[in-house]
Amino acid sequence: MWHRGGRAASRASTVGPSSRRPPRERLGPPQVKAVFTLIGQGLGHRTRSGRVARPCIATCGGGAVYKQGLGDGHVSADSGGDLWRPAALSHSQIVADPQPQVIQRARHLSEKFDAWRAGVSGTFESMDLAPDLAETIGSRRWFRGLGTLIGLSALALAMWPDFAPVEAAPVMRLDNPARDEFRSQMIMPLALGSDSGRRMGATALVVPLKSAPERPRVELLATLARGDSFERMLRRAGVGTTDAERVADLVSGSVALDAIEPGTQVDITLGRRPQPGAARPLDALEFRARFDLALAVTRDDAGHLSLTRKPIRVDETPLRIRGTVGSSLYRSMRAAGAPASAVQQYLKALSDQVDLDRAVRSTDTFDMIVQYRRAATGERQAGQLLYAGIERGGEAKTQLMRWGEEGRFYEASGVGEQRSGLVAPVPGRISSNFGMRRHPILGYKRMHAGMDFRASYGTPIVAVTDGRVASAGRAGGCGKAVKLSHGGGLATRYCHMSRVAVRSGQSVRRGQVIGYVGSTGLSTGPHLHYEMYRGGRAVNPASVEFVTRAQLSGAELRRFRAALASLKTVEAGTALEDLSPTATEAAAAEPVREIDKLETPKRVG
């Protein structure tokens, strides 16, 4: 819409010297708006001769001037000789431009389109169709914006794309051989081109059978669950009541039914029903009753059930494991193949003799022997720990062996379970020590013949070492109390219990719960009052290095040492080797069928 020079500028140059215009300047955006206002005012003005006058605008000094010209470029006579008139533009609205510019009306199509677009934009802007919905809520302007939002949302939903599945290309190209192979496996009937006719739909020509034929034999596997009985397990598997009772009687003659371990699997074979609706008869039954015994029940030609015992050869050579302690004793023992339960027993037994955190170095050697059984059929079973030892460089070996009915560990010298230090009766802080103090209830000073441990109500109280319960019950100001006798003139008492967990005359082990923390008797709150006596006199429990010993002597000590020497002759890792089959076992393992003989490797030599 801007035009530099042009015809209008050349026609203006023909005017006399008095009409020479000053240098024109460039109009900025604010000036353009004012210029268009002036154009709009001058478009409808006509001269006396009937011609339409078009304004021409230019800048002059600090303002802007315009003149009215005819369509052919001549100046209108209505101007009264004043060719240029000042325009109402301020100095701040004028931007200097050294090149002359003249505003003309739009004549080309592109210019007309731009003018139309500007007009439409202005119209929609004046309509204010999209106001801010956060302002003037509830007003007419707000509802107008809400209507715009709803209309645009409806339009968007109407134009929502369709998500119909697209047909995928076949995974593989089918040639004629592949198509023939698939065709042979079709489920279509033979009349429609199938080669097999399997799973063909029933038609009117199909005659249903009066009774479906049953399998002549049924083989299944039943598992004895925990808390279940052997006979009930058989009946649940489908064995008749009469056969189940007969099998239970036969098995109980060889092994107690309640001694069969949960999880034992039983192979059951059921025969053909004698008549429809009757229970299937038991043809055969076989299971592993013990680690060293298998039982089999079979039915003979006369229809009677009989039991067959199948003893399994078992080797009970203990398993010995040796290795270096390394960075972690537990991990090293597990990496060497020791069972987790045996490792825990080893650490518990050895911790009573050696400080495993400080006295054991990474270069020391651990030695352990575990009960171990190997069956000729390949099964293996690990038992409890028999021997625990550790070899520390420059120090005496520590050797412990399990001995006796109680299963205690004894040293090689015959001294059993030497424990240095006392077990804390409760896991709490000491709130009052042994000595003179002011009694919190009586209010005067008197001897405090024990130690008070701060603990919450109901905390378990344990025996500090092995002993026998001398008394258990009410004890005056001590409230509910338990007194233990440990031999050698030593005794301990535990007061202010809320509940007693042992009875008088009972033997207790170190760490066994004997009661629970309370606040009975002369007590201001839940805590444990712990006392220790030597020869009947109260002593400070913190000053006693308590030791429990079980000494062997005489013939029993000799048997203990002989058993220890025999146990230490076991070589490490010997029990991990497979048992060599005997002649009978090798003959029983020979294949019976000719096809099995083909799969068995031939012996050479």
Automatic annotation (TrEMBL):
<dbReference type="Pfam" id="PF19425">
    <property type="entry name" value="Csd3_N2"/>
</dbReference>
<protein>
    <submittedName>
        <fullName>M23 family peptidase</fullName>
    </submittedName>
</protein>
<dbReference type="Pfam" id="PF01551">
    <property type="entry name" value="Peptidase_M23"/>
</dbReference>
<keyword id="KW-0732">Signal</keyword>
<keyword id="KW-0645">Protease</keyword>
<dbReference type="GO" id="GO:0030313">
    <property type="term" value="C:cell envelope"/>
</dbReference>
<keyword id="KW-0482">Metalloprotease</keyword>
<dbReference type="GO" id="GO:0046872">
    <property type="term" value="F:metal ion binding"/>
</dbReference>
<dbReference type="InterPro" id="IPR016047">
    <property type="entry name" value="M23ase_b-sheet_dom"/>
</dbReference>
<dbReference type="GO" id="GO:0006508">
    <property type="term" value="P:proteolysis"/>
</dbReference>
<dbReference type="InterPro" id="IPR050570">
    <property type="entry name" value="Cell_wall_metabolism_enzyme"/>
</dbReference>
<feature type="domain" description="Csd3-like second N-terminal">
    <location>
        <begin position="320"/>
        <end position="434"/>
    </location>
</feature>
<dbReference type="InterPro" id="IPR011055">
    <property type="entry name" value="Dup_hybrid_motif"/>
</dbReference>
<feature type="domain" description="M23ase beta-sheet core">
    <location>
        <begin position="446"/>
        <end position="541"/>
    </location>
</feature>
<keyword id="KW-0378">Hydrolase</keyword>
<dbReference type="InterPro" id="IPR045834">
    <property type="entry name" value="Csd3_N2"/>
</dbReference>
<feature type="compositionally biased region" description="Low complexity">
    <location>
        <begin position="581"/>
        <end position="590"/>
    </location>
</feature>
<feature type="compositionally biased region" description="Basic and acidic residues">
    <location>
        <begin position="591"/>
        <end position="605"/>
    </location>
</feature>
<feature type="region of interest" description="Disordered">
    <location>
        <begin position="1"/>
        <end position="30"/>
    </location>
</feature>
<dbReference type="GO" id="GO:0004222">
    <property type="term" value="F:metalloendopeptidase activity"/>
</dbReference>
<feature type="region of interest" description="Disordered">
    <location>
        <begin position="581"/>
        <end position="605"/>
    </location>
</feature>
<keyword id="KW-0479">Metal-binding</keyword>
<keyword id="KW-0862">Zinc</keyword>
